[in-house]
DNA sequence: CAGTGGTCTAGACCACAAA
DNA sequence: TTGTGGTCTAGACCACTGA
């Protein structure tokens, strides 16, 4: 048995919701019924329901039943959700342009954030990201080079997380983000097609692997009038 | 029995951690031992552990044990944590100055965000918030007046959430926040002691009660060079 | 009232970590 | 190999909701 039963049930119920077998706002069958349908004990069934509740997909109401929630809550939290996903969920087409891709020595802040030595190399990438071909974000990402030296440029620049998890055997751990504001300098103004002095939302992100080693430091600036972060709790 | 057993155990273990009976990074006793100590089944004990894990207080390691986590993760998420709490946790002294407190008709955006009618009254409060007497944030909060008409000005302006939950019998539900950027206009510049055109972090927040009625709409502007939001996941 | 989710028991077997 | 957390069972009684 590869997957635990409660995960299988979780996935089945999720599919049933996607396939509109259970519709938004509607009540799903009672726990005792579902338990008997899946041939598991009620505790196991409840474990499946619990994970769906944690994802914001189901909502329990005491004495009344379990309902399909209207909101897809959790995943709107930024950071875990990539620019690509956010843009797509807004019904826009994401794209990006790689401005530079260099193996070099770390800056002071990179050294500190990535907890590496002067002698280590880093890979630094600059990008502009677009939604429907309108520039939204200028982004600099830095990665300790030894972590990715065996991957191709394309594997790194187009889907770093996936490459690291699937081909590198690494697991992503925690993410820390700082969000602030700044005004566009000349370089940012040019790259993002705004005037110098226009407001930008700034984001710094340090991502760690599950072994607590930092593997990525990102500094990004978003055009405030074209982008904002949304959080739901 | 007022509180469920697993909540009591949750609280007891939390106290034990606060009292350094279990220290950060250390392993706590095994589930079977704790279950027997508290005279409950292992499933019940696990439920208590689970809630502590969800709060980021404990960390399970398969095959090894359950450990006291070093990070107090969850609560750094902004919004749930008030300005007061954030400032205190930075070791600074929070204060605030109420600039205005008026019962009036809603603006267009207030009407929309709070889902109320033209004929309803709202309570609108303007504040500047300080950390160590340095102005950090200018904030306008709007509340449907009927929700708070029976409370005193002090109960509303100094601890709204507490008043609503303890004296109003309401329960806070979801919170949606949007974070962006802007530049200071003349009014903001004067109130926050910055120059016009300086970058501000903007936040809009709509808070709902557990019955899905919006009860608060807040627009806040933070001086970017003195404040940033931090998120950990 | 009947039906629902919330809590709880006293076991069981498994996979994984560390010695 | 021993001890740990992960999963699971087949019941039980409770408090709450809604007709």
TrEMBL record, chains A, B:
GO terms for biological process: negative regulation of DNA-templated transcription. Transmembrane segments: none annotated. This is HTH gntR-type domain-containing protein. Coiled coil: none annotated. It holds the Pfam family GntR. CDD domains: WHTH_GntR. GO terms for molecular function: DNA binding; DNA-binding transcription factor activity. InterPro entries: Bact_HTH_transcr_reg, Chorismate_lyase_/UTRA_dom_sf, Tscrpt_reg_HTH_GntR, UTRA, WH-like_DNA-bd_sf, WH_DNA-bd_sf. Keywords: DNA-binding, Transcription, Transcription regulation. It comes from Lactobacillus johnsonii (strain CNCM I-12250 / La1 / NCC 533). Residues 3-71 form the HTH gntR-type domain. It comes from the Bacteria.
